[in-house]
What we know:
- With 264 residues, the chain is α/β, with parallel strands linked by helices.
- The chain contains 11 helices and 8 strands.
- It has helices at 15-24, 40-50, 59-62, 77-85, 102-108, 141-151, 162-191, 197-215, 221-228, 234-244, 247-262, and strands spanning 6-11, 30-35, 53-55, 67-70, 92-95, 115-119, 129-135, 155-159.
- It has an 8-stranded mixed sheet, with helices on both faces.
- The chain is elongated, with a radius of gyration of 21 Å.
Amino acid sequence: MTTARKQVLxxxxxxxxxxxxxxLNGNDDFSIHVANKGNEERLAYVREKYGVETSxxxxxxxxxxxxxxxxxxPDAHGTLFExxxxxxxxxxxxTVAAGIGPSYMEAMLPNGTPVASLMPxxxxxxxxxxxxxxxxxxxxxxxxxxxxxxxxxxxxxEKVTEQQIHELTAITGSAPAFMYLVAEALEQMxxxxxxxxxxxxKLVAQMIAGSAQMLKTNIGTRELIDEVATPGGSxxxxxxxxxxxxxxxxxxxxxxxxxxxxxx
Length: 264
């Protein structure tokens, strides 16, 4: 990265924008500005909580920015790109909206505009996101460094292709909800033993966190399963039930449903 402080504008001040802003808090490489049309209360909250400059109108700010992060719903991007087209002149344009790929962004913005699609997940607010990013064809090495500097404050990240970000978002972005559904079921069964909801949450959360740490090792998933499940033992009996219920095909159906719904 260059030493000059980069001016970053977030158009939108929702949860994902705030998660990235929180990750950048205290980072002297960036000066953060936030615009959120029509929601003064949220802007006031963001201004107070993160100490950033805010505005109800991004149009006047856009031309002065180095990086513009679009944190609006996917269906708001068409109009947004039309407005941006006359204002951008080489700024790096990023979006955190699902289904908005670099090729679409490039088609909607002036020729040569560097763009990238980012897909964090909600764990970003804890600094534990698994973020995917897909750069467009005009993104340089310096742009890549800027993108990764933005993302490292909210967790891990991986550079992927445009096709891959569309396909993998269901796994990194949607599948956390599937994990929470599993956690909810386990918590309920734990409460049924007579412990409190707080105790149930603690033991299930730590079990999942510990399992996640084991997954970060070089040990294969099947080997990890075998470490827990002794042949003929109680865990093996539970695994047999899950396999008989075709858990893997069920997850595939869920991921496919997410991918189909996300198409634009």
